[in-house]
Design goal:
By secondary structure, the chain is of the alpha/beta class. Helix content is about 60%, strand content about 5%. It is built from 17 helices and 5 strands. It has helices at about 10-20, 40-50, 65-70, 90-100, 120-130, 150-155, 170-180, 185-190, 195-200, 205-225, 225-240, 245-270, 275-280, 290-295, 300-320, 325-335, 335-349; strands spanning about 30, 75-80, 110-115, 140-145, 160. Strands 2-3-4-1-5 form a 5-stranded parallel β-sheet, with helices on both faces. Zinc ion binds next to helix 3.
Length: about 350
């Protein structure tokens, strides 16, 4: 029951449900996957199923325990998340004290460690002791993005469950249902979310549209050229923005370039194709007219080179190359095939 609300991840749900049905639930799971992909929601569902009063149930949703879990108010369900940058040793000590008590409701106890890859060194050592000698009828669910950041001694005591990303259509469908987005907006947000529904659902659509306006302006400026306006633009773009946000801009830029490619490609292949047919495939359908103007100035191979340049910029910024400088150089390369090829080469060095 509790698992019905989890989108996708069929193999994970099957694995957990089989463990519950056969009552062979390992005392510690480690859920690994991208941010917003559904690990936390699955951990909550698993916790509910473990605490449900209806024996053999997967979380009936009706009993007192299930209702408490749904409200986040079950006394035997503990969730620990980083306090600031890390999960601190004091938090682990409090958890250990609570788990040392008898279960309030007489059943199992569940502890979820969110962002377990941010366990501090001391906290990890203390937590390891609990994992080695777990209190009776206690289940741990550790949730993390980066398995390599966890001590091997912790990982080796857990059953690792990997969460893949969801197909973009799946995420788009969810956005249409839960946020009432129109088809094009749902496709755009799904495209940006990299298959993580949690990220997609949390999107601030106005902010995203502002960022998209900037992306279109960026491409125009790249075509019109002029070093000084380019430098001013990328300076403004990166000033006060965290690297994550600049990367989000670059990802959005790539989706806009993808639409340009579609517009150029279709123009070169079938000049007679009605525009409405094409619009269905555009991620930025609401900016189709503006993108059409830009596409009209470009040949297919130029857009391909621009897209390659954008992906190279993303790669460089992810590797901590100076974001403003990276965007400066991309802008000044414009739509020049030679300059873009050199740019890509430099970015990947
Ligand atoms: Zn129940």
């Amino acid at each position: 029951m509790a698992f019905e609300t989890i989108l996708g991840h069929e193999h994970v749900k099957q694995l957990l449900e089989a463990a519950l049905r056969t009552r062979r639930v390992p005392h510690a799971y480690l859920f690994v996957g991208a941010r917003g992909v559904g690990k936390h929601a699955t951990a909550l569902a698993m916790g509910q199923a473990l605490l449900c009063e209806e024996r053999g149930s997967l979380g009936c949703g009706r009993c007192d325990a299930c209702r408490r879990c749904a409200r986040g108010a079950h006394p035997d369900f503990h969730v620990v998340a980083p306090d600031g940058q890390q999960i601190k040793i004091e938090q682990i000590r409090i958890l250990q004290d609570r788990l040392g008590l008898r279960a309030f409701c007489g059943g199992a106890k569940v502890a979820v460690l969110d962002e377990a890859d941010r366990l501090g060194t001391e906290a990890a050592a203390a937590f390891l002791k609990t994992l080695e000698e777990p209190p009776e009828a206690t289940h741990f669910i550790l949730v993390c993005q980066n398995l390599a950041a966890l001590p091997l001694t912790v990982v080796s005591r857990c059953q690792v469950v990997r969460f893949g990303t969801l197909a973009a259509e799946h995420v788009a469908q969810l956005l249409r249902q839960r946020r009432q987005f129109d088809a094009a907006t749902a496709r755009l947000v799904a495209g940006l979310s990299a298959g993580c529904p949690g990220q997609a659902l949390a999107v601030d659509i106005e902010r995203l549209r502002d960022l998209r306006r900037l992306a279109v302006a960026f491409l125009r400026l790249g075509l019109d050229g002029g070093a000084l306006p380019c430098f001013e633009f990328s300076e403004q773009l990166t000033r006060g923005r965290a690297r994550e946000e600049v990367l989000e801009f670059v990802d959005l830029l790539a989706l806009v370039a993808r639409d340009l490619l579609l517009l150029c490609g279709s123009r070169e292949r079938s000049a007679g194709e009605p525009e409405s047919a094409l619009r269905r495939f555009l991620l930025n359908a609401d900016a189709a007219a503006e993108l059409g103007e830009i596409a009209a100035r470009l040949r297919n191979e130029q857009v391909e080179a621009i897209l390659a340049g954008i992906l190279a910029a993303s790669h460089a910024i992810r590797r901590n190359v100076h974001a403003q400088l990276t965007l400066d150089l991309l802008l000044t390369a414009g739509a020049d095939l030679q300059a873009l090829a050199e740019y890509c080469h430099a970015c990947r060095r």
